[in-house]
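Box S1 | Example of a co-folding query
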Amino acid sequence: MGIFDKFKRKKAEESSKEEINEKFSENAAQTAEAPSDEEKRPSLLERLGSAQPIFTDHESDIQFQEEYEAELKEQSFYKLKEGLRKTKDGFMSKVEQVLNSFTKIDEDFFDELEETLILSDIGAETSADICDKLRAEVKKTGTTEPAEVKQMLKNIISEMLSGDNSLKLDTKPSVIMVIGVNGAGKTTTIGKMAANFKAGGKKVIVAAADTFRAAAIDQLNVWTDRAGVEIVKHSEGSDPAAVIFDAISAAKARGADIVLCDTAGRLHNKKNLMEELKKIARVISRELPEASVETLLVLDATTGQNAVSQAQLFSETADITGIVLTKLDGTAKGGIIIPIKNELGLSVKLVGVGEKIDDLQPFVPEDYVNALFDD
Ligand SMILES: Nc1nc2c(ncn2[C@@H]2O[C@H](COP(=O)(O)OP(=O)(O)O)[C@@H](O)[C@H]2O)c(=O)[nH]1
Ligand SMILES: [Mg+2]
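Box S1 (continued) | Returned holo structure for guanosine-5'-diphosphate
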């Protein structure tokens, strides 16, 4: 179970009738309707904000909680599905074309499929791996049915993506260091995480260690204000490692649960950047030797294969524990999740499906594959 799921559940469990009533009392207009795929849906918070309190006794309270959880899950899958629509249209429709245009599953079919996968940002190595596995499956079963071959392909991709992708935050405090090139979505992701953790009852401290530009500190500050969490910041141009040191001291003093570290991403000064990241990591392990530390590399899905190169580059310096893949909404390149896992052994732990505070989700491989393969 992903950390956000846990928090959502905890939140639902802890929500007393009074709290929920309070949420609704200001704006009790109409009950939120079950959304359809066609209409553009308001965010969950907006919808809950305009819902009528529906409970009058304990039983309906439980019913509300169940509906609330189901709603969160459905909303989350809906967003992922919406986000992956272009990937599905680009990638799956081409795969289906290949499946349907061959009456015999022969070498020509596999050649064509491999080419289609490569053109869909799956990368040469992973496309070849997928086709090898599929070839073996087809041979074993002797099938010629496109639908069966499609199901095999789905299983192979599912299998490739499986593995532990939950965030490990076992100590108090735990640290999440967020790295990646400029514009990938680090600061936005930190803002979204801060809000999620806060909603789950966690005490969060954010370290503004991208000190390169004053605007970067201000941008992070806007997010921490929005999320209602504390920020530790120094002036522009100061030593990022010193910011982290202060944030960790504050976390120890105030009993914080999670320290979120924003970092710079100026790749044009690669050597300095990598040295800076190493120094930050050293401060964390020196000040909190026993702590759970997640080093999340943020990658922009719209950059396709370039994201895989970035992951290679950063993994030379940092002990990356997981990937956050942002901007999955509106790109046809959502397939890059597959080579990132298959070629680099890095699990995608979170996905960004929009710019808003609730547009960050734990990555659920099963949901991803279902969103791509199912109608
Ligand atoms: N559509 C979309 N935009 C995103 C997402 N995550 C970040 N962004 C946008 O990407 C841009 C760069 O994000 P920022 O957090 O400043 O990147 P940083 O330089 O790595 O800190 C901003 O305009 C964000 O709103 C996402 O999941 N979806
Ligand atoms: Mg930033």
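DSSP finds 15 helices and eight strands in the chain. Residues 58-83 form the longest helix (26 residues).
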